[in-house]
């Protein structure tokens, strides 16, 4: 059992994961896979014909260490089921799942309990706080389950309560807190054990838009400091684009595209993905790195240099070069020229698709 994870090893590795609900699912799946030669779509169809529900179909992906991997999709597309499979809240019907190189599907129940208590953090839309415990007691509770001494666990609980901006409300009971504050307690509680891998299932969906945006900002801030490996479910494209390093789009139990926010916005693989992003202001979300043409090593230095950088959004870049006609250079983090972009193409790229 590999305790020491190498830097290159993904935090989570899923291969050909299936979750099929209904009686005899495992046998029916094996049989259908054999009959269809492993074709996921045909297998799912065969299972549906038997009144089974193929909620997750042949899903494969890696979550890199320290990244925020967002799973997006319409209601019923299988997001929650997939995350429950990874954390083994439910047993998968078929496939492989590793966390830090450890095969969690083969792990004994006691080992899974240990992983859940020490390594995996979970936050759900509904806060699930204990109503008879103060914020501090709620946050310290998982540490009690770990067997930590009282003074130690209360000190740690105070630390994470401060981290989520609730200092001063330690003694409040859940009923005395707003929705946003309760969700902060939920986040603090799951952070208390310092998990390596963090699952968040629509954590901000129940909150009103203003508080939601505030919590997203704080979440990004916390992640910049803690660098957890995160799987974050949402059905809100704006939220996904804001927080994700990469986004997986699910439809009917399958992942149809995995990409950076820029790729999802600028290069949707089909109409389903395009529909999610059609109202998104592309210029605000896509980075210049996604549209530049790499510079040939012996290319002559360009005449005009408006000082574009790869990390600029398309809007920022366009406002710096919109009066120019010829391709302009784009600089990398060290200032060196890494590519070129044509202002006219940039202007085309930021256009929102006609609705
Ligand atoms: N225990 C279960 N038994 C049978 N079917 C289930 C079960 N749990 C989920 N499903 C079905 O699996 C499919 C995927 O559901 P899931 O909750 O994973 O979707 P979701 O994308 O998370 O949706 P939402 O955004 O509404 O939470 C749905 O068709 C759902 O009805």
From TrEMBL:
UniProt record, GO biological process: response to osmotic stress
Q: Which family does it belong to?
A: Belongs to the ABC transporter superfamily.
**Oligomeric form and interacting partners:** The complex is probably composed of two ATP-binding proteins (TmoW), two transmembrane proteins (TmoV) and a solute-binding protein (TmoX).
Q: Which UniProt keywords apply?
A: ATP-binding, Nucleotide-binding, Transport
Q: Report the top EC class in one word.
A: translocase
Report which reactions are catalysed by this protein: a quaternary ammonium(out) + ATP + H2O = a quaternary ammonium(in) + ADP + phosphate + H(+)
Q: Which residues form the ABC transporter domain?
A: 12-277
Domain of life where this protein originates:
Bacteria
By its UniProt entry, which SUPFAM superfamilies does this protein fall under?
P-loop containing nucleoside triphosphate hydrolases (SSF52540)
Q: What is its EC number?
A: 7.6.2.9
Q: Where is the signal peptide?
A: none
What SMART domains has UniProt attached to this entry?
AAA (SM00382)
InterPro entries per the record?
AAA+_ATPase, ABC_osmolyte_uptake_ATP-bind, ABC_transporter-like_ATP-bd, ABC_transporter-like_CS, P-loop_NTPase
Under the GO molecular function aspect, what terms does this record hold? ABC-type quaternary ammonium compound transporting activity; ATP binding; ATP hydrolysis activity
**Could you tell me what this protein is called?**
Trimethylamine N-oxide transport system ATP-binding protein TmoW
């Amino acid at each position: 059992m590999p305790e020491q994870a190498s830097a290159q090893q993904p935090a989570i590795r899923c291969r050909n994961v299936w979750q099929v609900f209904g009686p005899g699912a495992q046998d029916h799946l094996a049989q259908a896979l054999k009959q269809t030669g492993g074709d996921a779509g045909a297998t799912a169809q065969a299972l549906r014909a038997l009144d089974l529900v193929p909620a997750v179909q042949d899903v494969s992906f890696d979550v890199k260490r320290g990244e925020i991997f967002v799973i997006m999709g319409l209601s019923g597309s299988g997001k929650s089921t997939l995350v429950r499979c990874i954390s083994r809240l439910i047993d998968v019907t078929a496939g492989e799942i590793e966390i830090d190189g450890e095969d969690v599907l083969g792990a004994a129940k006691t080992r899974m309990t240990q992983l859940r208590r020490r390594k995996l953090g979970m936050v759900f839309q509904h806060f699930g706080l204990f109503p008879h415990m103060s914020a501090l007691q709620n946050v310290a509770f998982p540490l009690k389950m770990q067997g930590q001494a009282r003074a130690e666990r209360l000190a740690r609980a105070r630390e994470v309560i401060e981290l989520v901006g609730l200092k001063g409300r330690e003694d409040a009971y859940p009923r005395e807190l707003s929705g946003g504050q309760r969700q902060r307690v939920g986040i603090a509680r799951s952070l208390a054990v310092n998990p390596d891998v963090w699952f968040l299932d629509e954590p901000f969906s129940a909150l009103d838009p203003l508080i939601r945006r505030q919590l997203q900002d704080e979440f990004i801030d916390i992640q910049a400091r803690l660098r957890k490996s995160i799987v974050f479910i949402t059905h809100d494209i704006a939220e996904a684009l804001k927080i994700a390093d990469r986004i997986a789009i699910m439809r009917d139990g399958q992942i149809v595209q995995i990409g950076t926010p820029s790729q999802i916005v600028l290069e949707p693989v089909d109409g389903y993905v395009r529909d999610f992003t059609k109202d998104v202001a592309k210029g605000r979300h896509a980075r210049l790195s996604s549209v530049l043409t790499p510079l040939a090593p012996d290319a002559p230095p360009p005449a005009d240099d408006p000082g574009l950088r790869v990390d600029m959004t398309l809007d920022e870049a366009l406002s710096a070069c919109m009066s120019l006609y010829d391709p302009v250079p784009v600089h990398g983090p060290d200032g060196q020229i890494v590519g070129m972009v044509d202002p006219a193409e940039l202007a085309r790229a930021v256009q929102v698709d006609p609705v």
